[in-house]
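Dear Dr. H.,

I hope your travels went smoothly. While you were away I took the liberty of generating a structure for the chain from your last submission, since the lab meeting agenda had it listed for discussion. I wanted you to have the full record in hand beforehand rather than looking at slides cold. The sequence, exactly as received, is reproduced here:
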Amino acid sequence: MKYELIFCDFDGTLLRNDFTVGEKSVKAIKDYISRGGNFVICTGRMSRSMDGWLDYLGIRNQRIAVAGFQGTHIADTSGKLLYCDYIDPDSVYKIMELGKRLGVYTHFYDPDWVYVEEENDINREYRRITSVPLKVVGDLCSYIKSHPDLKVVKAMAVAPEDKLDEVRAQYEKLDLKGVQFQYSSDNFIDFVSESGGKGEGLKKVAALLGIPIEKTIAVGDHQNDVSMIEAAGLGIAVANAREEVKAAADYVTVSNDEDPVAEIISKFCGD
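The corresponding predicted structure, in token form, is as follows:
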């Protein structure tokens, strides 16, 4: 098989706009795995929030099924942690503090929880869509200061689409040690370790599985997917991807509503 690993973004790529995965793609994934392929979800979501999808997609019995938190958290399907890249707590504090000054919603994650100041419409909707567990801790800055042993994997800021660039510009002025940030949707800025990201996640999963990078495919739709699309043997953007993602890709497939994974497996992953 020419391509032994497909590293696939979830939201906006495998997941359709109605929050389902097409039957053609599910069938294609199961067939690909039955022929020896490895299909790994790489998502900005928490790794554990993907558990409900593993059986449906037929990837439960793989050694590795998910690379969560923008590829910075990798565990095998038995739950053994294989790799995790954390953010410096001082940088997390600065992210939360600036969010408060800007009036921008923020939260942060350890491998098991989303830490929020209080439940509100934003995080309740986020929980509904992604099935993440919320931990209400009050003022986030105070909580970080009183818990110096926190293992933070990711932080997020949420802003209206027309304000996102302005908010990002404010964060770029901060001295965020060891942190990179990128858009993961039209409203989200994700902050992860500078040494992490989806491109590094792809390389680590490929190495753990013993698969040469030239035998990998990465497919995505948003800015946070560019690094893995550029790192893969074959980088693919879905038709609904941002223009900079399409520009980075070797191939543009159909949209997330048209079973792109089925099209990719049919075109590139025959025996």
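Two observations you may find useful: The longest strand covers residues 188-193. The chain has two domains: 5-84+196-268, 89-193.

With kind regards,
E. W.
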